[in-house]
Specification:
The structure holds two protein chains of two kinds. Chain A has four helices and six strands; from the N terminus they run αααββββββα. By secondary structure, chain A is α+β, with helices and mostly antiparallel strands. Chain A has two domains: about 30 residues; about 90 residues, Nucleic acid-binding proteins (OB fold (Dihydrolipoamide Acetyltransferase, E2P)), CATH 2.40.50. Classes of the chains: A alpha+beta, B mainly alpha.
């Protein structure tokens, strides 16, 4: 390699390393802000912004879904299997919303420790499979 | 291959086979994915959009990787062919990125309940689109010397490489609404296991690779003709054609 090429290669590696380190520091410093949602454990430890909207994410707890009669109001618990948070929501739910599935809710924490959601988003996982396979897996899990 | 005339001559033979291969694979992959793959146990038929979305997303990152590597070669070794590959790849990669974002939004609305939200995966993919536009913009802003312009564009492209691992690991490092990787090379317990779902995905991944090669070589050849228009090999080539 000629000296000029070597110089350019060193220059470019330094630039890339510098930008890489700067980005890494930036991302670590803003780790909390980069998080898309708070978990129920964090929320139950009062680690959430007060009087301001934030996102609460986790699983819809099995058996926690209640529909309130004569309205579109529902109540359910969001869990991360460490802590639960009660959520109240009025409106139309996405198709994938169901018990035992992931969910991201946007709203505020009320005084009575119920999370008042203005928006509910469903979160699905990467395990795509045909219905038959999922049935087999379920029966296996029950046995 | 390193010199423009031989690159131009050799890749001329590859174009047609690459295009035919890409088209055949794409037709097979789409028909297989849209009609023969089984529905998903949660999402039903809606998940089929991933046979376009996931290969397009892979290409958006793969092409940026190529741009970064040819950018380094163009910057350090000043190779004309590397400049041609880099600038020829940029619009194709930008289109794949736009396609990824668009299909992702169309998928997100019925499944998640929103077209767009600023989660780490979506934001970093949007930044990738801006990087592509930046590379093309810098190049065309400096129009009095294409070689210098290519080197400046290369610098932007190389710096932008930092974004690739961020996109890849955005769903691991931070909580997000976007799900994890559909396919893991290391095996692992999550992702698609069913061969009839995996097959169209892999076929589409191959099809988009061949399409990219075809399109990129085609563009790189005309890039070389344009930037080398006063050289004797171009004049000879034009007379021959």
């Amino acid at each position: 390699m000629t000296p000029t090429r070597k110089k350019r290669l060193i220059l470019i590696s330094l630039v890339v390393m510098g930008v890489g380190v700067a980005t890494a520091i930036f991302l670590t410093a803003f780790k909390d802000n980069m998080m898309f949602f708070k978990s129920p454990t964090e929320v139950s430890q009062n680690d959430f912004p007060e009087n301001r909207s934030f996102r609460l994410g986790g699983m819809v707890k099995e058996g926690s879904l209640q529909r309130i009669d004569n309205s579109l109001k529902i109540r359910f618990s969001v869990t991360d299997y460490g802590a639960d948070v009660q959520v109240e929501y009025e409106g139309i739910l996405p198709d994938l919303f169901r018990e035992g599935q992931g969910v991201v809710t946007i709203g505020q924490m009320r005084e009575d420790n119920v999370f008042a959601a203005e928006e509910v988003l469903a979160k699905h996982d990467e395990n795509y499979m045909p219905p038959e396979v999922s049935n087999i897996l379920q029966t296996e899990a029950q046995q | 291959m390193g010199s423009p005339p031989s690159f131009y001559r050799i890749t001329g033979y590859w174009l047609k086979p690459l295009l035919i291969l890409a088209m055949l694979l794409m037709v097979y992959g789409l028909v297989d994915g849209l009609f023969f793959a089984p529905p998903d146990y949660q999402q039903g038929d809606s998940y089929r959009i991933m046979f376009v979305h996931v290969p397009a997303a892979w290409m958006s990152m793969f092409i940026y990787g190529i741009i970064g590597v040819s950018g380094i070669i163009a910057f350090v070794w000043r190779m004309k062919v590397a400049e041609a590959v880099m600038m020829a790849s940029a619009p194709i990669g930008a289109l794949f990125t736009a396609l990824t974002l668009l299909t992702g939004m169309l998928w997100g609305k019925p499944m998640w309940g929103t077209y767009w939200d600023w989660d780490a995966r979506m934001t970093s993919e949007l930044i990738l689109l801006f990087l592509y536009i930046g590379v093309m913009g810098i190049y065309s802003a400096y129009d009095d010397d294409p070689r210098k312009a290519a080197r400046l564009a290369a610098l932007v492209a190389i710096i932008g490489l930092v974004n690739l691992p961020i996109i890849r690991y955005s769903v691991v490092w931070w909580t997000s609404i976007h799900q994890g990787a559909s396919i893991s090379l290391m095996g692992g317990n999550s992702g698609i296991k069913e061969w009839s779902m995996l097959r169209p995905l892999l076929v589409m991944a191959l099809a988009t690779k061949f399409y990219y090669l075809y399109s990129m070589l085609h563009r790189a050849r005309s890039y070389l003709l344009r930037t080398e228009q006063n050289k004797s090999w171009v004049i000879k080539q034009v007379i021959e054609d």
